């Protein structure tokens, strides 16, 4: 009898969308007594619709932010619809890739996680070769593939989430030992960091370090070791800034963007981003009515898309985007917790690592746009222009949906 009660409670929790709390307005059928299986959704529909909404809004705002770019001599050979078409193509490719990725069982992702990490390392080496990569603004971050410029650092974010989760599962019994559990992972992240800083792409390194550290912490690494690693990473970033003149100037410009010395230099983007938010006020100037996108705010369709949203849609639009990302990250973490509760540690850690990636990168991008954090070249996930970023974001969230699908199969009494 107790087994029936426990099973009924688990079904009730699943129908309500949370462990331990069922929705009162949804009747739960006792298929133990009726002999009929409970009818449940096959995947997390609210999560899917929030992702679709962010992609759709991003497409509209990328078009709005880039429509005037052909007036600039640098983009004179492009049509007004060039970035819109390219971004729509990236979303279509991401949709197809997501449909494929969601069919792949998590046991396959776990099996090939180390090899995917090795492949991402090789691509990070290849992108540094002058006859392969395409330099843009002095950085070698992209490999031209015709339909898009592929950025290996985006693949590295997914690879590190899968590899770190796989690593923690393998090292679960020795996670209290620094040299056997933590040091090898620290070396792997350090190797990725060296390759990324050679591009240079410090922003991607910060996100990858954040994903790896988050998974180590959630995987149960000793608290003292975790704080030791955190201190080492913070010290490394401070050292990089202290010994790099242009990085140090960025910090000073961030601290005082209205200083005459920085307003037309290192703080130019930040100052115009703040002006855009100021012009937006509460309800914005109206869709398409941004002035800052008219060659005042550089990279308006990529790193500073939120500033254009703030100017055209105002506080209401920005608040809606912030809430959507908060809800998305929280939902992904919930799926990860469900997987761990079902004794699927790898799947749970992967989902939570992707939640750290999407939520953390969105937080950094928003902080940069709002002047809360120093300027850093990170796009707004799912929304900013960037083919490989959108593609890998879609694949990563498809992996999360796969985790959720397998959770639901197990909770119905089936096999993942």
From TrEMBL:
One of its GO terms (molecular function) is lipid-linked peptidoglycan transporter activity. It is a multi-pass membrane protein. It is found in: Cell inner membrane; Cell membrane. HAMAP family: PGT_FtsW_proteobact. Belongs to the SEDS family. FtsW subfamily. The chain crosses the membrane at residues 47-69, 81-106, 112-132, 178-196, 202-219, 226-244, 304-329, 341-364, 384-405. Coiled coil: none annotated. The lineage of its organism: Bacteria, Pseudomonadati, Pseudomonadota, Betaproteobacteria, Burkholderiales. One of its GO terms (cellular component) is plasma membrane. NCBIfam families: ftsW. Pfam families: FTSW_RODA_SPOVE (PF01098). It catalyses: [GlcNAc-(1->4)-Mur2Ac(oyl-L-Ala-gamma-D-Glu-L-Lys-D-Ala-D-Ala)](n)-di-trans,octa-cis-undecaprenyl diphosphate + beta-D-GlcNAc-(1->4)-Mur2Ac(oyl-L-Ala-gamma-D-Glu-L-Lys-D-Ala-D-Ala)-di-trans,octa-cis-undecaprenyl diphosphate = [GlcNAc-(1->4)-Mur2Ac(oyl-L-Ala-gamma-D-Glu-L-Lys-D-Ala-D-Ala)](n+1)-di-trans,octa-cis-undecaprenyl diphosphate + di-trans,octa-cis-undecaprenyl diphosphate + H(+). Keywords: Cell cycle, Cell division, Cell inner membrane, Cell membrane, Cell shape, Cell wall biogenesis/degradation, Glycosyltransferase, Membrane, Peptidoglycan synthesis, Transferase, Transmembrane, Transmembrane helix. It comes from the Bacteria. GO terms for biological process: cell wall organization; FtsZ-dependent cytokinesis; peptidoglycan biosynthetic process; regulation of cell shape. Pathway: Cell wall biogenesis; peptidoglycan biosynthesis. Its EC number is 2.4.99.28. Its main location: membrane. PANTHER family: CELL CYCLE PROTEIN, PEPTIDOGLYCAN GLYCOSYLTRANSFERASE FTSW-RELATED. It comes from Caldimonas thermodepolymerans. This is Probable peptidoglycan glycosyltransferase FtsW. PROSITE patterns: FTSW_RODA_SPOVE. Peptidoglycan polymerase that is essential for cell division.
